[in-house]
Design goal:
- The chain is α/β, with parallel strands linked by helices.
- Among the domains are: 104 residues; 130 residues, ABC-type transport auxiliary lipoprotein component (Rossmann fold), CATH 3.40.50; 82 residues, no CATH class.
- 52% of the residues lie in helices and 9% in strands.
- The strands form 3 sheets. Strands 5, 6, 7, 8, 9 and 10 form a 6-stranded mixed β-sheet that branches.
- It is globular, with a radius of gyration of 26 Å.
- The relative contact order is 0.06.
Amino acid sequence: MLKTRPDDLGHEASLPGIDEIRAQLERILSSPEFPGTGRAAAFLRYVVDETLAGRASRIKGYSIAIEVFGRDENFTQDDPVVRIEAGRLRRSLERYYLVEGDRDMVRIEIPKGGYTPSFSWSATAAAERVGPQLAPLVASADTKSRWWYGPVLAGATMMMLAAVMYWVVSNDPNGTANQHAKGIDGSPITAELTGNLDGPGTRVLPNSIRLPAVYVVPFSNIDGGSDAKLYSVALTEELLTALPRFNEIKVFGRETSTISPAEIDAFQVSKDLGARFLLTGGVRASSGRLRVTARLVSPTSGEIFWSKDYDENLAIGDPLAIQKDVARRVAATIAQPYGVMAQVDREISAAAGSYDCAWQFYAYRAQPSVEAHAATRQCLETTVAEYPAYATAWAMLSITYLDEARFKLEPKIGSPQPTQRALIAARNAIQLDPNDTRGLQALMMALFVEREVSESMRVGEQALATNPNDTELIGEFGTGMALSGRWGRGATLLDQAIALHPAGGGYYHGMRALAAYMLDDIETAVSEIRKTDMTISPLFHAVAAVTYTQAGLEEEGRRHAQIFAQMQPDFVANIEAELEARNIQRADRQRLIAGLRKAGLPLLQEAAVALDTSNLQPR
């Protein structure tokens, strides 16, 4: 993504200049597809003007509240006006670029996580700027890329395609759509276009991949009180912020101030938007307590797929934090890759014979095997060959490639090394969509395996900012943190992943057991290792061996040590190097080796570490 900075505006040939940005701002504000009056226009003009004047560092919630919305100097973050209006502004910009501005040369966006705008060339502009000799390669990538997929896949060809995609495809994360559904109030609502590429760099999905869509119905004020009304509006806004962070779903919603739940035509929503799910609920607030009821239902049959009550004590908690936490738990439960929407959609898709690569990827991740890995890799390679602008598919493919190295699965013949392919695919995903959580996760994981730990953890922090509720990401980030020696932070992240997705994550339970062992919490280590599925990663038999032995369960510890030695003889023969390759710190490696010796693991002499093991037993 080509982003401007205040110090280089107008001076880099690859970036839009100040005059071009100002012209684009006026074009947006004068468009009938953008709310040209009121808060959105004032908000956008303020942040753009401040950035162009070199004052981007001043753009904070406090300054916006005072200078745009007229709040006094007593403004605090308890007032959600800036966050609510920022969400509306982002949606207004997305609508503009999907409808009238789909061919504009300059894009102005407000990235999530802040209020400072970014400026970039659109896909159309980027295609013109790369020159006629390169633009056709991108425009026809869906057909030109197919021939490199097959039994005789050429690694050099994949590298060439990746290089072209990396340098040529510009950022257009929301794509260019020309199909509109009518909203509940009669106004057009743009749905994401599916099908083949519609010009270079356009983010589109194959017809066979239909993301599950949810329409967020404004939560109702059940008890009629003013407090409940305020909380119902704020909670709906929090959900409309949390849910779109999940790249594997589509989210629709209307302004909460202009429509009530009673006016929702559920059948029309489903028909116009293809929304298979409605998220609805109600709020009660009285006597210092807040009760939120949330339900995920079918708009056509009325079937309730999921429902839950959340009871909170307003007297002992920050109301803003409570609303955000409830929205976080709802979003994680229904929208994560292993959540309610995914489970229902997989069942329906499988019954209809349209079980696509995305669901196949997560099914493989939940229950990994050599066969499932090969089938998933083949499906994803076909997808990115036909649809090279599909960022999330590149990310999934990257993780699938990485598993060849991590779990010693069957590698591709005649290809670059798995980690090289993983890095190429992850960087393609990020180039296509810098905010794709799965893409950032894939890059974090690939860098970690390449032993670029600091950069990996930096990307992990960036990924966590894009979606702090994604359990797939949180678990992998926690794993990296733990293995690189930050056991406490790793344990906290793994606990979050497990709490948000208690039904899954056997791999994360194993890592949590190792973190507990290294933190001298043997009781937790034993509890977590008993929840671990060890079929894919024999290393967890080693974790079980040291854990059970330290807990006084010597027989069970010896049994797991023997299983580990039988399954991974090469690992045992080179245990110091193997642990180092996983970025485990020297003192931690020595402690694990001492624990394995105590469990009776027959280590070869060259794997021994010259040290006094008496001080390395878990404390």
